[in-house]
Amino acid sequence: MRHTVYICLAGMLALSACGARNGDAxxxxxxxxxxxxDETNLNDVMxxxxxxxxxxxxxxxxxxxxxxxxxxxxxxAASLIRxxxxxxxxxxxxxxxxxxxxxxxxxxxxxxxxxxSNQWDAAAATLNAIPxxxxxxxxxxxxxxxxxSKQQWDKADSFYxxxxxxxxxxxxxINNWGYSKLTxxxxxxxxxxxxxxxxxxxxxxxxxNNLVLARGAxxxxxxxxxxxxxxxxxxxxxxxxxxxxxxxxxxxxKGLLRExxxxxxxxxxxxxxxxxxxxxx
Length: 281
Description:
Blueprint lengths: L1 H47 L3 H14 L4 H13 L3 H12 L6 H13 L3 H9 L8 H13 L3 H13 L5 H14 L2 H14 L4 H13 L12 H17 L3 H14 L5 H12 L1
């Protein structure tokens, strides 16, 4: 009887020890999972909202420690773009593309970095190597920019139109398309596109300013009917004034400068200086 009790006690102790070991292993696995989640969250923060230079330092150190991890390589490349270090970002994205785990979006990001560092031919070659079935907003946006740089206007228009259709927020793309038309001298076409961009996002001041430039180039010296703050109105009048003066409509330009000065809620030094220069001349 005593022997049986000893066996039972030994068995219970063994089970307890086994359970403790299993529990420890589960705790360790859970902690590892938490570490991965925490690291992923930290990586996301560093790539998006952290100080760009701090992000570069963080990911540079991480890549040095784990050079084969593609998520860290991407983080470094993206951080270099955010920090305005495009030439270094090209090298970083090339490392990403060279990773066996890379995908076609990484090649698009490489082309983006190449354009930012003024490597237009290299960017075109990078995009040409991507299968045409890879149809994304970023890809077509870059294709449009390259076509613009080569003055291939029909291609540029096609790519801008496709890109705008592939995003739920097309205002910036349509604005860029309009600016392309503006540089070609198609002022009426540019005006229509800027109006469309503002229809998509009426807070986009760049499109408002570009719209004034397009109208001014056609000698339409009245402000368009779009939502604007008092400060924006003054700034747009100033843009209109400079456009008029550039076209030798000096009297109109002076009047617009005075209106801009009167409209601005604070002292509008740029407009005042321009007006003084005209009157002294």
